[in-house]
Amino acid sequence: MFSIRCLAMIAIMVALASGLPVAKAQDAAMSSPPAFGGGVFVTPIPGAPFSAVAEQEMAQLLKDGTWFKRKTSALIARDSQGRIHNESHEVIPTSSAQDPVLFSTHIYDPNTRLNTFLNPHTHIARQRTLTHPPSTEPPSNWAQQESDTHPPNPNIREEDLGPGSLDGIDVHGYRRTITISEKASGTGRPVMVTDEYWYSEELRINILTKHNDPRTGELTVTVTRLNRDEPDAELFEIPSDYKLVDMTPPETESRGPVRVIH
Q1: Which of 11, 53, 155, 246 is the most exposed place for a label (fewest CB within 10 A)?
Q2: CB atoms within 10 A of CB 63
Q3: Element (H, E) at 104
Q4: Which sequence spans correspond to the domains of the chain?
């Protein structure tokens, strides 16, 4: 039985490296095809409430031999109705003792398909109705997706790491290794990129995710401080002092004017 202490990881090398907020990465995954791009994807399923902290750490070895290390953390939550709360905070040096500043909050209600981003600096809530419901499995979880009919790629190796436990939570681990040729890697030598995740079937989220690419570094994201009680209802509501802006395109037009609700 594999057992790890929560150290740090669950998803967004691309988001951290490019500055894409975690909550926006989940939004992109909810409205576009699955891709490894993002953060802690909180699945909008009913009947499994929780709140937790998603801790992320990134480390990159620079050409001068020094390490570039950054971290961030954010509150994530889901209530019994399946509504989700996913925050995006700034990325700060790992040596910093400060709390990372909140950039935005993502709220999604599967009953209405209303997708909302709260900006704490402008007090504007941008909201749109999703055309299709998001996945009930993290989009980056290849093992939980239906297998396609394409022939196996010899440059991709997938491993079932078996069951384990992370801080008392039953999980199952999977690893995928992609070998990139020296011509395609841009380094003059073959590069091996690995993605690993430990998935909780009960919670339908990844408790631990790791991404390692020698060209860009390592990302570790961990769900910590898990609380299975019903979260505060205010986490899933738009504060009264926010201006609500409807970003949903009109049905008869592909693009239209932004509608300010209040």
Answers
A1: 155
A2: 5
A3: strand 102-109
A4: 2-149+212-260
